[in-house]
Write a structure and sequence with these properties.
Elements lengths: L1 H10 L8 E4 L5 H10 L3 E4 L4 E2 L6 H11 L5 E4 L2 H12 L4 H10 L1 E5 L1 H9 L6 E3 L5 H10 L7 E6 L5 H9 L3 E6 L3 E2 L5 H11 L5 E4 L2 H13 L3 H9 L2 E4 L2 H9 L13 H16 L1 H4 L3 H8 L4 H6 L2 H6 L20 H9 L2 H6 L1 H15 L4 E2 L15 E4 L3 E4 L6 H5 L6 H4 L1 H14 L5 E6 L1 H10 L7 H9 L1 H25 L3 E6 L7 H19 L5 E5 L6 H7 L3 E3 L6 H7 L5 E6 L8 H15 L5 E5 L9 H15 L2
Parallel strand pairs: 1-2, 1-10, 4-5, 4-7, 5-6, 7-8, 10-11, 12-15, 15-16, 16-17, 17-18, 18-19, 19-20
Antiparallel strand pairs: 3-9, 13-14
Helix pairs in contact: 4-6, 7-8, 9-11, 10-12, 20-23, 23-26, 24-26, 25-26, 26-27, 27-28, 30-31
Bound molecules: coproporphyrinogen III.
């Protein structure tokens, strides 16, 4: 048996080939290790949880004692599983009637239908049921509507992890809050192996990682964070193959911004290990597998959308891996040149389109399906983060964006409110989730944001500009004010991008459209550190495309600021520019948008010229050098997409 397993491994072309494979399974630790070995991996199995007897839950019993004593004004139930576990724990000491009776006398808040069901099973009708989807904000809003919270005693049932935002919100309202952690799955008595596994992943030494339950994910993250290694751990995971046993586990991973390469075709340990081994083999030998990528993707679609996306030519292009054809998408692919867009736009102002996820998703998906491009860019605008700053952003037909109260002085800057981009722009996340649900299993989704310089230029000029006179004057005259503004914008942008990635964006593009107005010394001093901090904040979470125009003099500096792919407008020669970047990054571009007004033969000729310059090197993503212009004929755009696919087929 033993030798047969070894032979099988050696013969298997899709094995782990000796890489370190980390698993967190406890009950099935031995089987997991054996399976990993059988598929040619080196197992590191570190249990992440053990079942804790609920009766031992001191916090739950303390909660029950206070509740029966009439010392709470409100109890918030965050999860169904947690609510049931809490009831079971307290019933081990107190009669059900006493608890249900006490609960009936206080304000009970159930977050979503699951805790509602748990409460009803227990004989309690919740006072407030928060609809789904929801966040901690809706809970606070609902409580606020019931009157002031100051001095009120509130218990919050938690499951696994504390919701720090909710706690902070309650505390900010001067409520007296008691957290009631009810979690069946506590950490193992000996945390040594778990810590070692986390450190191994953080150091980038694991080749693959598999998660076999959602509670495991919670405990692993808790441990990594308690050790101050949360970010390194996530970054380390970004470089490995991550397998998730099933949708609940995947949801928990995504909630922690961890990408998933695959879910197995059946939620079984054997399938998980086998399919993770296959995914790791595909990643290892891209050349060998490239021609089969598309066919394999189509076949794998039902099994795992995540794997299809990972192997999509656009994603492979971002990682500079060989592709069966050059991937193409177009900046401003969803826009006024397209009649479908104009029809939606006729009925809704631009900002409303951005703010209503179902409309934004509709416009995003329509463009992809109409054009046959290789990526969906979420419909939004780089200026949306200016909305929560309260500077009066509006879009005027003909004039483009207008900022009613531009920022010109340190006093203006100091008046800006602190912004939580992830919350204020959660509608963009919702739109991404809708697009993901519609086409996310076959088309990669691009999230995006404006880079700090380009955002600052709108904020300071009050709209579009030719010379950037006010912007540059402020930067040159008052560097301290400038750097403060840029630091704030970088922070907002980083949070905004992270939120988009967490919502399902596979790649993000940073638009520094107007940075070409600077010379290299000014770029290095006034812009580079800030753009660098944005890109560093998302490194390992998703590939980054770093775009600008008229940047022929800045390309090396832009690469230094960061990005997996650098955007090239049409004013540079793609071959020369890529060489200057030493092929250390991918490049995106670089067709002149006006070329799309020429006839089809000319469009083909120009597309071929760009493909020739790229020489089939891995890492070229075809695009225009800047966005599609509103008068562009749609059929010419489609002809370009088809021509690039056809002429670049390897
Ligand atoms: O399809 C896509 O590419 C996604 C959507 C998208 C829009 N704007 C929609 C939009 C993207 C990626 C952007 C980025 C953007 N927005 C940039 C960077 C790219 C670039 O062109 O350099 C900039 C500088 C902006 C700011 C902005 N938004 C301007 C200057 C304008 C007005 C000019 C114009 O092109 O209309 C907008 C409005 C805007 N953003 C429209 C669209 C479809 C047109 C609004 C309308 O329908 O009336």
């Amino acid at each position: 048996m033993e030798s047969q397993a070894k032979d099988e491994t050696r013969a298997a072309p899709d094995g782990f080939a000796g890489i370190l494979v980390v698993a967190f399974e406890g009950r099935m630790a031995a089987e997991t290790a054996a399976l990993i070995e059988r598929f040619g991996g080196r197992p590191l199995v570190a249990p992440a949880m053990r079942e804790a007897p609920l009766e031992d839950n001191a916090a739950a019993l303390e909660f029950a004692a206070r509740l029966i004593d009439g010392r709470f004004d409100a109890v918030i139930f965050l999860t169904g599983v947690g609510a049931r576990a809490l009831f079971r724990a307290v019933e081990s000491r107190y009669p059900r009637d006493a608890i249900a009776g006490a609960l009936a006398k206080v304000l009970t808040v159930a977050r979503g239908p699951k805790p509602v069901a748990a409460l009803r099973e227990f004989g309690v009708e919740p006072t407030i049921a928060i609809d789904e989807p929801n966040t901690w904000r809706e809970i606070l809003v609902a409580l606020d509507q019931r009157g002031a919270l100051a001095g009120k005693h509130i218990a919050v049932q938690e499951y696994g992890v504390t919701n720090r935002d909710l706690m902070a919100g309650l505390e900010a309202r001067n409520a007296e809050v008691m957290a009631v952690p009810v979690y069946r799955w506590t950490l193992p008595a000996d945390r040594g192996p778990l810590r070692e596994a986390i450190a191994t992943i953080a150091a980038g030494r694991a080749g693959a990682v598999v998660f076999t339950s959602s509670n495991q994910v919670t405990n692993v993250i808790r441990t990594a964070e308690a050790d101050g290694m949360g970010d390194q751990f996530r970054r380390g995971l970004g470089t490995t193959i991550v397998g998730s046993i099933g949708p609940v586990c995947s949801e928990q991973l995504r909630a922690h911004q961890i990408h998933i390469d695959l879910e197995p075709s059946h939620p079984k340990l054997g399938h998980l290990i086998k399919e993770t081994a296959a995914a790791s083999a595909r990643r290892r030998a891209p050349e060998q597998n490239a021609p089969a990528t598309v066919a394999a993707a189509a076949e794998a679609r039902t099994a795992s959308g995540d794997q299809v996306i990972r192997d999509h030519p656009f994603m492979r292009g971002c990682r500079r891996e060989p592709v069966p054809y050059t991937p193409i998408w177009l900046m401003r692919q969803a826009g006024r040149y397209m009649p479908e867009y104009r029809r939606v736009r006729d009925r809704h102002p631009f900002l409303e389109l951005c703010r209503r996820p179902e409309l934004a998703a509709e416009v995003t998906v329509t463009a992809v399906e109409r054009l046959g491009v290789d990526a969906a860019i979420i419909f939004a605008d780089i200026l949306l983060p200016l909305i929560p700053l309260g500077v009066g952003l509006r879009y005027e037909a003909g004039d483009g964006p207008i900022i009613e109260r531009p920022i010109r002085t340190i006093a203006d800057l100091e008046k800006l409110p602190p912004v939580n981009a992830a919350d204020a722009l959660s509608f963009v996340g919702d739109a991404i989730r809708l697009v993901d649900r519609a086409i996310g299993d076959r088309t990669p989704i691009i999230g995006f944001a404006g880079a700090p310089f380009t955002l600052a230029s709108y904020l300071i000029e009050g709209g579009s500009s030719r010379q950037y006179q006010a912007t540059k004057t402020l930067a040159y005259n008052e560097p301290a004010t400038w750097h403060r503004l840029m630091t704030m914008l970088a922070q907002v942008t980083a949070d905004y991008l992270k939120m988009q990635i967490a919502a399902g964006a596979d790649v993000v593009q940073l638009f520094d459209s107007w940075v070409g107005s600077l010379g290299p010394d000014d770029y290095r001093r006034l812009v580079l550190p800030h753009t660098q901090s944005v890109i560093a904040a998302v490194r390992g979470l998703a590939p980054v495309i770093h775009f600008g125009t008229i940047t022929g003099n800045l390309l090396e500096l832009m690469r230094e600021a960061g990005g997996d792919v650098i955007g090239l407008d049409w004013r540079v020669d793609l071959g020369e520019a890529w060489q200057r970047l030493r092929y250390e990054v991918g490049v995106q571009g670089n067709l002149d948008p006006i070329a799309l007004f020429a006839d089809r033969a000319e469009i083909r000729r120009r597309a071929q010229a760009i493909l020739d310059k790229a020489q089939g090197r891995p890492g070229h993503i075809f695009n225009l050098g800047h966005g599609i212009l509103p008068e562009t004929p749609v059929d010419h755009v489609i002809a370009l997409v088809d021509a690039v696919h056809e002429m670049s087929r390897r």
